[in-house]
Design brief:
Number of helices: 22
Largest sheet: 2 strands, antiparallel
Structural class: mainly alpha
């Protein structure tokens, strides 16, 4: 049964019940049919950045980029004023609350770069983890959780498809105005483009963004969710669409030349397969594994067809490098730098807002007392913004969340809930891996992590309440 069909049947059953017992079930129809804040939030995470496709929007780029995070803050504030502080809907709530308190205290750090960059950085953290607080109460049941995952697939899949089309026909599908920050940099497009077939220049596809290469993150989610829902019973045309999203996801990652995301996607698939083996779901395993192979081969071949030898060389070396790819990308040195130099120099933090986009937007690059510091990995950023305490608190929040996610899978008896729990845990495992190759918890990848885990625990609470 597909998610869409199941929702329609739920509405039908509710309407029949409403006719038989109008005083009891009338509200049920409205709850099933209407969108909650969760649906709107998921859609706006893609729709608002997509407005940068419109000509002339670079002048309002900053408000458009801030808007998805501002919406999360607004929903969190509404949750607080609606009495949400008394709710216990997420297993990591205590550690997340401690993180918010610590970051607030860090605003008084003597070595902040500027007050504006520090405040912006703290609000960025809070907006990213905010869905863990306000979103669980919006989940009505497991079927609602499944529909939210399908909605995420549609958003991320559309993003990936646009990314592929941008390599196929850039004149029609590439934004008229790419990020002005990229174009005005020292090297311009030279660092975000490569030579494609027949000597053409291929700009790393931004997808429904304006920043070259940005499609890699939504493409990763599209590939995983596409495979999962393409192997879920339902109408064949819909399952074929989901499979196409998965192929587009792999192809978009290849065209963006972001090897880290391809490695993370492989880890997500491996983790999901491991979950199926552990639960003895060999029937589903027989569908997932062949499709993963088809999606991987088909997506890579499509990427090479559109991107040429540059794509083949970029990803072909992974088979030779193996685990050395992480070291060759400089990540090992950066992690060592964090655990030795940064931690020793800033055990209590360097002051929030001294690195990343908040420093770029609101900081003072010429500050003599608190100059900007480069950070490319999440542990480095945690150390700078909150010292050893932020590293410990965020680590505990992620550990508790992951432990509870796995426990829910282990104890789940409902097949639909196991599907939701499995794909969410696999997706979030990939985000955890990205901690050592990126800074996921200060951007929309981190937001998706907390959205997914909030969906899972919201559905689990509704199941226990039944």
């Amino acid at each position: 049964m597909s998610v869409i069909t199941a929702a329609e049947r739920t509405v039908t059953r509710a309407r029949i019940e409403a006719r038989e017992r109008p005083g009891i079930a009338a509200t049920t129809v409205k709850q099933v049919a209407r969108w909650s804040a969760a649906e709107w939030f998921i859609v706006l995470q893609t729709a608002l950045p997509a407005l940068l496709f419109l000509p002339g929007t670079q002048a309002i780029r900053l408000p458009l980029r801030i808007a998805p995070f501002a919406i999360s803050l607004a929903l969190l504030a509404h949750w607080v004023f609606a009495g949400g502080l008394s709710e216990r809907l997420h297993p990591a709530r205590r550690w997340l609350t401690a993180i918010v308190i610590l970051l607030a205290l860090m605003l008084g750090h003597p070595f902040t770069n500027t007050a504006m960059s520090a405040i912006a950085q703290v609000f960025l953290y809070i907006s990213v983890l905010g869905p863990a607080f306000w979103l669980p109460r919006n989940i009505r049941d497991t079927e609602h959780a499944r529909r939210l995952l399908v909605l995420m697939l549609l958003c991320n899949g559309s993003n990936a498809v646009v990314g592929v089309l941008q390599a196929y026909d850039p004149a029609r599908f590439m934004p008229e105005e790419l990020s002005a920050r990229v174009l005005n940099s020292t090297y311009g497009l030279s660092t975000v483009s490569y030579v494609g077939p027949d000597g053409t220049v291929v700009v790393r596809p931004p997808g429904l963004f304006d920043n070259p290469g940005a499609v890699a993150v939504p493409a990763t989610y599209a590939a995983l969710l596409g495979v999962v829902f393409a192997t879920t019973p339902g109408p064949l045309p819909i399952r074929m669409l989901f499979g196409a999203f998965a192929v587009a996801g792999v192809a978009a990652i290849c065209l963006s030349l972001v090897r880290t995301n391809l490695l993370v996607l492989g880890g997500m698939f491996a983790f999901y397969v491991w979950l199926l083996v552990r639960r003895n779901e060999f029937g589903r395993l027989a569908l997932v594994v062949p499709l993963v192979i088809v999606v991987a081969v088909g997506g890579f071949r499509l990427g090479v067809h559109l991107g040429g030898d540059a794509v083949a060389e970029r990803f072909g070396t992974l088979t030779d490098e193996g685990t050395a790819a992480y070291r060759n990308a400089g990540r090992t040195e950066q992690l060592q730098y964090a655990m030795t130099d940064l931690l020793m120099q800033f055990p209590l933090g360097a002051g929030p807002g001294r690195w990343g986009m908040m420093q770029d937007y609101f900081g003072d690059p010429l500050s003599a007392t608190a100059p900007p510091i480069w950070a490319e990995l999440q542990p480095n950023g945690w150390i700078l913004d909150g010292g050893i305490f932020l590293v410990i608190l965020y680590g505990l929040a992620l550990f508790v969340t992951t432990r509870e996610d796995i426990r829910l899978i282990k104890n789940a008896n409902d097949q639909r809930f196991r599907l939701v729990a499995g794909v969410i845990t696999a997706a979030n495992a990939g985000v955890l891996a990205m901690i050592f190759g990126f800074t996921p918890f200060t951007n929309q990848m981190g937001t998706q992590y907390w959205v997914l885990t909030a969906i899972l625990h919201g559905a689990a609470l509704r199941q226990r309440a039944r």
